[in-house]
Here is the input.
Amino acid sequence: MLTYWANPTRADTESVDGELTFAGACRSIFEAFGLPWIGGNAADISAAPCAPLIVPQPIIAPTPGGEPEETEPAATPRPGTPLRPARPVVTAPKPKRLMPNKNELEQLREQIRTWSTSGTIENGAKWNDILYLIAEQIDPRSIPVTPPLFSKLITPEMVKLQGTTTRSLDYFTLPAEPWVRNGLEAFVSLRQDTGMTLADAEYNRRNLATMMRRLERSVAAFIDRKVTRLADGTRWAPAKTFAQILLARAYLRGATRADAPLVDQIRAVLSDEGLSETDFSARCMPWQEWLTATKGFHERLRVELRAMVSLHLTDAGGGSGGGSALVDASDLAAAIVQFNESGKFDPVPEENGGLPDLYRKARELAQHWGEKRLQIERTEFSQIKSRSEGVSELLRGKDTATHVARLDRCITGIAEQLPSAAIAKVQAWKQAYVRLGPKLGEGAGTRIEELIFALEDEELPTKLLPRLTWLAQQPARDLEDVLTTLQAGERAVEELRDHARDCVREAGSGSLDDVEAVGRTIRSAVDDFEIEE
Here is the structure.
């Protein structure tokens, strides 16, 4: 009845010729059909129209064709003046008659009503833009999903009304259902109807609110399709995974430790990386592989994580610039505590689904850590312990600086006596000795000796992450350099010793005193250095 005898876009009660009307339909019509009266008992008082949001475009009226044009009388030529040929009169073409057009609001209403019945909609691109304007008003945290992920999944290109595209991509598509039509019509009416009454505005707001509630559920279902839920049915929390990836990297770089205060670990996660004092090439291969795998992505992960936890406020007055950005650290704190206790990342989806590229990479890195975390700790500890034991054996109970100095005196003394012996080995030792000298002056020997004592006393953490961070603090580069230098010295001494034996055997025809004299010369050169077989 309202469709044929009333205006469905109105919801006000008026008095026409002394009779109440609702949406333009008289009360007598309701009574004639035996329908209950849904209008008010008195006419509504319309509010003064607000300033128009869209300035109406006037239609230029054409000039009537039958009216004669007024012309000025031609000037009378002076006597004796030669007559000039008259110029042809050029008449401007008359504008085409413009047919009266429907205003934009009426066009949009007609399009959306036609779409609800035919399944296709005229001017689909504009309606898709309108739908996106509505969808982006949804609070991502109410779904819940992080704002950066929401903005990557709900984009202008991915939001479509049914019948506006023929491509087979996995769009977010709304069907041609009444609640969608009513909500879209309400949205454009509230924006463009400059003469809307209070009752009409209330009616449209109710329709739009209904659409927003159902739209939020539809968006949540779309995101569930894109982001696979976890095995327990909960949604993935990418902020925790991002934080744990960055924290594991900070641990292996030696930027923080598992026993550091929570605020320091959060700062290490959110702050840009500085220069690390650790030389990663001295670490085991699994250790290096993890740092290499995260090297090209940690900056993008950190920027995305900041956007996830940002409250878009600062600690300065008024919430504007001049202070540090305020963040919601609840997910960060929970992720760090859980990671420190178990050494494992929070669960991630089993499949990529429709995740953006950066989120797919984070998921892969989380799986990589789950597979390699124990291997990283075991391999690095085994390497550190093996090298420490090797250095301890070569030092022969001496401190590092003293033993290196004795090695140099021994090799130099024998090389002076046998200048053509073991030339390559002697040169290799001299080069290694020169490189090691500055590091010993900076305390490398002391750091290595403390590491040896700690391993001998088994003063090591028992949990995975404390052990990893303890290993990250150890002088792996110094240990490798000292071990390499000591091994080069041992090889030089062994080859020089063989040459010295050959000299003794060749001197077999001489007297014992001659052999003893050679021995005393060598003994004096090495300054009581004992060569062990």
